[in-house]
Amino acid sequence: MTITTQARKITESKPFYALTGAGDYAVEKARAYATTMQGKAEIMARELPEKAKGYADAAATRFARLYDDLADRGRKVVSRVSGEAALELTEVSKSAEPEIAAETTAKRTSRTRTTTQG
């Protein structure tokens, strides 16, 4: 049997036609799907800027709210810490006052003696 005869037998057989039909059907469906997807992609491309803007606006709003909350929280912490620091400074200054006053008085006294002696 020659190659031509074998090729003719294959091309004239029902399985060959079924396989060829399945391939054609797959190509047809793939083209239809591609056309559908292209249409959807075009719609999405047109809507994307609006959707992206909406998402960006929502994110910006949430970020601004979070930023304000963090700033308020920071103010409270600084106020609390500053208040504690102010109390500590007051206590330190009260306990240090007599020593400083005594030192200042001693320096004045020694200057007065030096000036009077000189």
* Number of E strands: 0
Approximately how much beta-strand content do the residues carry? under 5%
Low-confidence stretches: none
Radius of gyration: 46 Å
SSE pattern: HH
Tell me the span between the first and last alpha carbons.
142 Å
**How many individual helices?**
2
Structural class: mainly alpha
Whole-number average pLDDT?
79
Biggest pleated sheet: none
What's the domain count?
1
- Bin the helical content: over 70%
- What general outline do the C-alpha atoms trace? rod-shaped
How would you describe this protein?
The protein is mainly α and 118 residues long. It has one domain (3-117). Helices cover 96% and strands 0% of the residues. The protein has two helices and no strands. The mean pLDDT is 79.
Briefly say what this structure is.
The chain is mostly helical and 118 residues long. The protein has two helices and no strands. The chain has helices at residues 3-11, 14-117.
Q: SSE layout and pairings?
A:
Elements: H1 3-11, H2 14-117
